[in-house]
Write a structure and sequence with these properties.
Elements lengths: L2 E5 L6 E6 L5 E6 L5 E6 L3 E6 L5 E6 L5 E6 L5 E6 L4 E5 L5
Antiparallel strand pairs: 1-2, 3-4, 4-5, 5-6, 7-8, 8-9
Length: 97
């Protein structure tokens, strides 16, 4: 459905829904500081979100097939993504380059 849900792990309550992908979401990762979420989708994109507001910060385009793995670097400055196009991409989380 293209949605990412953030849940409170202690209460099980939904905190926020992140809407923006045009295809189903295959993977998500939260930054170590808990401030951002990154997601990968059947729409071949990676999206970075503000976890507190639910706002999309940026869309990373460049894969030609579904994105099935995403993760922030420990310091949160980079995002790595892997897709069914057999490419691993390393992105600058601030610029999208």
């Amino acid at each position: 459905d293209g949605l990412v849900k953030i849940w409170n792990a202690e209460t099980g309550q939904e905190v926020r829904t992140l809407a923006g992908h045009t295809g189903g979401v295959l993977c998500v990762c939260m930054s170590a500081d808990g401030k951002r979420v990154v997601s990968g989708s059947y729409d071949n994109t990676v999206k970075i979100w503000n976890a507190a507001t639910g706002q999309e910060v940026r869309t990373l385009s460049g894969h030609t097939r579904h994105v099935h793995s995403v993760c922030f670097s420990p310091d949160g400055t980079r995002v790595v993504s892997k897709a069914f196009d057999h490419l691993v991409k390393l992105w600058n989380a601030e610029t999208g380059q």
